[in-house]
Here is the input.
Amino acid sequence: MTPIVLHVGVLALQGAFVEHVELLRQAVAQMRSDSGASGDIDILEVRTAEELHGCDALIIPGGESTTVSLVAERSNLLEPLRHFVKILRKPTWGTCAGLILLAESANRIKKGGQELIGGLDVRVNRNYFGRQTESFEADLNLPFLTEEPCSDHEPFRGIFIRAPVVEKILPPAHGEQKEEAVRDETVIAPAKDPTHGQGSWPVEVMATLPGRTRRLVEKPDAAGLDQETGDIIAVRQRNVFGTSFHPELTSDARIHIWWLRKVFDACS
Here is the structure.
């Protein structure tokens, strides 16, 4: 049987796309040394709709979500991205700014201030952890990494830079999350086609960061928090995956390897 060849794109409009490409290459090298690897991976930078069309999966890197949205719109790439994620439902992973763009709802944004791609039925709280000077690192326990046969189960060092958080898990919806649209300083992703929502696939919480919300909810009005949810920093809904933090800014390829294995599963 001919080995599977996957074409994995990294959106290269702005942000840490070079770092993602490098860590993907590291992940591919590690997978090739693993007897369980069953195909090859072609990694490409994506700047046009034509390049996106050739991809089986896509990473949307961290950076400035407003800038990425604006450049994508001016490059006539915004609608193809929505089609890729919401209609074709190809595997897509967004980190930090990428998570914001993949959310169906994002707050702390003025109406019309930013376009969203959508694909994850969540509301994200933009810049939840504060300004650049309040960036931090933390050891994360990521249960999904224990699925990897070669995982050493060591904590993953998460890097949070002006990071968002998933403030609320929304019910799966066909079309727009209309109830979110009436909230102040909240934008929602448009429906590419009302018949092609995420359907009955719920959002899975893949990782949380304990402790920080408890301190912030002392001033819940300022933070705009859903106190019942806590600090959700990784979610998945069918083939769409999002993380608040920046795995690409580390030398640890475990999440990239895990995600690539999921891409192989989805494309098999």
